[in-house]
Design brief:
By secondary structure, this protein is mainly α. Helices cover 74% and strands 0% of the residues. The two termini are 46 Å apart.
């Protein structure tokens, strides 16, 4: 009985403490509302002068915090590497994907090129509208996932091409950052013409970075989907 009362007392104290912390944090955030707005306006002003990207979020992801983006794509690579190392040599297949799906095959013949084209559009227009390399890369990979579901174990992916694309995109990403250091004295420094905001050829190196990110994400997510679909015991 005393134990139940003690547990109840601890629960009440913990709830009160958490509630106090939430209210305190909300008060701090509300007090910084004006400052956050000013910071956003300053960021937009810097974006207009340094990147000329119509999508300010893109500037933050690829330009102002390029090192963080490098870390994100590195984590994705390590995830795929770890999974491929653990289950890449497995031979068994999932029974639900053993047989071909004829209805889905009809759809994939129409949808596959459309999805690929849409993914490329999202990658190439990341500096102009919502999207970019991460989103477009996943969309491209989803087209191959649809093929896996339609053709089962009969679909074969050329892993040499995937490895080549992944290596090329990683090398291009790093090279772009290093060139920024050599030319502009900062990692991912913009060494290309900015162009005019809103034009397709604008925003300096940002579209280039997103092309490399899109290739990397598409190749790695495609490989990841194949590992999970075709391996039984994981």
């Amino acid at each position: 009985m005393n134990l139940k009362k003690e547990i109840k007392l601890h629960t009440i104290i913990s709830s009160l403490l958490i509630s106090f912390m939430i209210v305190t944090l909300l008060g701090i955030l509300l007090n910084f509302n004006h400052s956050s707005s000013s910071l956003g306006m300053e960021l937009l002003a810097i974006n207009e002068t340094q990147t000329q990207s119509a999508n300010a979020v893109t500037s933050v992801v690829t330009y102002f915090r390029g090192l963080d983006t490098l870390g994100e794509v590195t984590i994705l690579f390590l995830s795929v590497f770890g999974i491929s190392y653990a289950i890449g040599d497995a031979k068994s297949k999932l029974n639900i994907f053993k047989d071909e799906n004829q209805l889905l095959q009809i759809g994939v013949k129409i949808l596959f090129p459309i999805i690929i084209l849409f993914g490329i559009y999202i990658v190439l227009n990341g500096h102009l509208s919502p999207g970019g390399g991460f989103q477009g890369g996943v969309i491209i990979a989803s087209a191959f996932l649809l093929k896996f579901l339609a053709y089962g174990e009969n679909i074969k992916i050329n892993h040499k091409i995937i490895s080549l694309l992944e290596s090329f995109s990683a090398a291009g990403f790093i090279l772009t950052g290093v060139l920024g250091v050599l030319v502009m004295d900062r990692f991912f420094g913009n060494f290309l013409p900015l162009g005019k905001m809103g034009d397709f050829f604008s925003a300096g190196i940002i579209p280039l970075i997103y092309i490399f990110v899109g290739l990397k994400v598409a190749s790695e997510i495609t490989a990841l989907a194949e590992y999970f679909i075709k391996v039984k015991d994981v």
